[in-house]
Amino acid sequence: MLKVNNIDVYYGAIHAIKDVSLEVPDGEIVTLIGSNGAGKSTTLHTISGLIKPKNGSIIFEDKDISGMPAHKIVGMGLCQVPEGRHVFANMTVMENLELGAYLRSDKAGIEEDMKKIFDKFPRLLERKNQISGTLSGGEQQMLAMGRALMSRPRLLLLDEPSMGLAPLLVKEIFNIIKEINESGTTVLLVEQNANMALSIADKAYVLETGRIALAGTAQELASSEAVRKAYLGG
Ligand SMILES: Nc1ncnc2c1ncn2[C@@H]1O[C@H](COP(=O)(O)OP(=O)(O)O)[C@@H](O)[C@H]1O
Ligand SMILES: [Mg+2]
């Protein structure tokens, strides 16, 4: 579904992403793990069109999307949930979800998807008229995911969904990611929580200072000595 081929990304003179290639097959959960500053967010921003790569190509469903404007890419079915959620704090839960569908005009479909999202996230239904800035971190993560789902993505990019959440909520969020995937959405998941990410992913890549250091099935990486030492606490 997605093929990233040999991309390089610079911030001025900083070479943040070095010759990165990765693949996300249709229907799978692929995770990109790595320490703080490794280049995970930069990789996602480049895929979703917020940053342009200096070279290389990004192929989404057989179309080259490198250099395309971000809103066009969302319209094609690729949506990112940013690190730190970024919900519209002064708007209600419903308003945030409605904004997720801003590129769509199929009213009946939008209503149907809103219902599905409330089924998946009952906490959002309970709080549908609440101002989003007053939600807890976990609820804001759910809202950011729900808002992305309102664009009916075929591929969902998630940037550190577990960041700052209590362990119980982390479990809940990861269960929901699995459910989203099981209902047909392909997922590229960026995480520092390598343990959890590897437990739900099919394939995994390890990013180290802008380069892909390791790649394999999630099982292979979870049992690799190097990964266990560096990312899984031994
Ligand atoms: N806007 C920016 N300007 C300059 N350097 C940046 C910018 N954003 C990120 N970087 C640098 O690029 C590298 C990768 O950052 P990032 O992609 O945010 O890593 P991660 O998401 O894995 O923590 C880091 O060295 C970071 O300091
Ligand atoms: Mg990041």
What attributes characterize this protein structure?
single chain, 234 residues, alpha/beta, Rossmann fold, 6-stranded mixed sheet, 4-stranded antiparallel sheet, 10 strands, binds adenosine-5'-diphosphate, binds magnesium ion
Overview of the molecule:
- The chain has ten helices and ten strands.
- It starts with a strand and ends with a helix.
- 42% of the residues are buried.
- It is of the alpha/beta class.
- It is globular.
- The strands form two sheets. A six-stranded mixed β-sheet has the order 6-7-8-3-9-10, sandwiched between helices. Strands 2-1-4-5 form a four-stranded antiparallel β-sheet, with helices on one face.
- The longest helix is centred in the C-terminal third of the chain and has 16 residues, at 167-182.
- The chain has helices at residues 40-47, 70-75, 93-100, 107-120, 122-126, 137-149, 167-182, 194-200, 218-222, 225-231, and strands spanning 2-11, 14-24, 29-33, 55-60, 63-64, 78-81, 155-159, 186-191, 203-208, 211-217.
- The chain has one domain (2-231): Rossmann fold, CATH 3.40.50.300.
- It is 38% helix and 26% strand.
- The mean pLDDT is 95.
- Adenosine-5'-diphosphate binds at residues 11, 14, 16, 34, 36-42.
Topology (SSEs and partners):
Elements (H helix, E strand, L loop, with lengths): L1 E10 L2 E11 L4 E5 L6 H8 L7 E6 L2 E2 L5 H6 L2 E4 L11 H8 L6 H14 L1 H5 L10 H13 L5 E5 L7 H16 L3 E6 L2 H7 L2 E6 L2 E7 H5 L2 H7 L3
Parallel strand pairs: 3-8, 3-9, 6-7, 7-8
Antiparallel strand pairs: 1-2, 1-4, 4-5, 9-10
The structure holds adenosine-5'-diphosphate (ADP) and magnesium ion.
The site of adenosine-5'-diphosphate (ADP) has 11 residues, from strand 2 and helix 1.
